Amino acid sequence: MAGMDLAEVVRRAGRGDELAWASLVRETTSLLLRVARGYRLGEADALDVCQTTWATLADALPTLREPASLPGWLVTTARRQSLRLLAQRRREIPAPPEPATDASASPEVRALAAERAAAFWRAAEAEPENERRLLTLLVNRPELTYAQLAAEIGVAPGSVGPLRRRCFDRMRRRLVAAGFEASDLC
Fold this sequence. Notes:
Elements: H1 6-14, H2 18-38, H3 43-60, H4 70-91, H5 107-125, H6 129-140, H7 146-153, H8 157-177
Helix pairs in contact: 1-2, 2-3, 2-4, 3-4, 7-8
InterPro entries: RNA_pol_sigma-70-like, RNA_pol_sigma-70_dom, RNA_pol_sigma70_r2, RNA_pol_sigma_r2, RNA_pol_sigma_r3/r4-like, WH-like_DNA-bd_sf
Pfam families: Sigma70_r2
GO molecular function: DNA binding; sigma factor activity
């Protein structure tokens, strides 16, 4: 878009000019990512917001009345997408993974493992969103580094350890209050 009028590039993209569309994407993607990251979304979620915003623009571009106002339109759409994604995440309750037990274990051992897992996820539901997402990632993707966990939940890498410790402390207190022995929680 260097040296080109934004309104003209928008009009050309709206008429199907692939070079104009590529120019719009290249020049404004960093803006969309900043908006999404402003909502503390992880990298994958920020990229999803970007993609959804671009898909929405692709549908709306031919009818856009004020091509020069595209940056404002993009920011507003990215904000709405970010808020929609956050609202959706708040409604998600992670499905507990199957308890890891030996298939040859007795029915009692399997039942106790299932009960412990169910109690763990019930206690996790009381955690704030970031902690719930952290717990889900720690259980389902234990190979992730702190940097990767931080990116997924939208916090600084140095915050993951303290966040994890506080979360585990609260979970331990809830589970002990629910009747589990501290030795059962290891």
